[in-house]
Specification:
Layout lengths: L9 H13 L1 E3 H14 L9 H12 L4 E7 L6 E7 L6 H4 L4 H16 L5 E2 H7 L10 H13 L3 E4 L2 E4 L1 H14 L5 E2 L6 E2 L2 E3 L6 E3 H8 L20
Antiparallel strand pairs: 1-3, 2-3, 4-6, 5-6, 7-8, 9-10
Length: 237
Amino acid sequence: NTVMAPPMTDAHRRFLQILMSNGITEGSEARKLHQYCCETDKVYYAHDRLDDFISTINSHLQPLFMQIRKGISEDDGRAHYALVNLAETEITKMASDYTEIELELFRKTMELIILSENGFASSTDILNLADQLKTKKMKKKEAEQVLKVFVEDKWLSEKNGEYTLHTRCIIEMEQYILSNYQDVARKCNICHSLAIQSQVCESCGIAMHLPCVRKYFRAQTEPRCPKCNELWSCDIP
C-alpha cells in the first residue's frame, strides 16, 4: 500500500514559486524562506524541519519529474537548493532560454571545465572555441556577451577571467555530466556529490572538493588519503 504524501499547503506552493524564480537558493536563505512562507500562510513552522518541508513538496513534484535537490558550493562548502528537471536527457531545460549556437558554446565550455586539471577554463580558451562552433561561427564580442549571460543566469561562475560551473549548474547537470563524461567525471569521496573543482589522490585517483579536503584534514597532523591511506600529495587549502 502506498504511503500518502502529506498535502501541499499554500506555504509549500509559495516556497516552490520563489525557489523557481530564483533558480537556486543558498541554505540559510532557504531556511529564512521556509519561516517566511509558514508564517505568511499561518501554518505550523518548525525551524529544524526544512528537509521534511522540502520532501513534502518533492512528493508532489514526482509525477512532474521535478525535484528540489540539495547541493554543496564548491567554493565554500555551503548547502544550496535548486529545482531540477529529472526528465531531461539532454540540456533540454536550457533549450527554451538560449539559441542553438549559445547552447553549443555552453556545452563546449562545460567540457573544457570538466576536462581541465583544476575545474576552471580561461576566457581565452573559451573565446577560441567561438571560432570552431559547428552551428555557426561566433564573434569574440558576441561570445563574451553570451558568457556574461551564463554567469548572470547562474550556469557559470567567473573569477579573474577564469570560468567554472556554478553550483546551480552542478546540481542540475550532475546526472548529465556523470553519464556523458564517465571517464573523467568524479564524485567527491567525502560528500558524494559531483566534484569539478577538486584535489585528486595521486595514488588511487579519488577526488575531494576543496572545502571537504579542508574539513577532512583539519584534525590530522599527517594528511592521508581516506581511501588508500597514502600521504595526501596536494597542498591542503
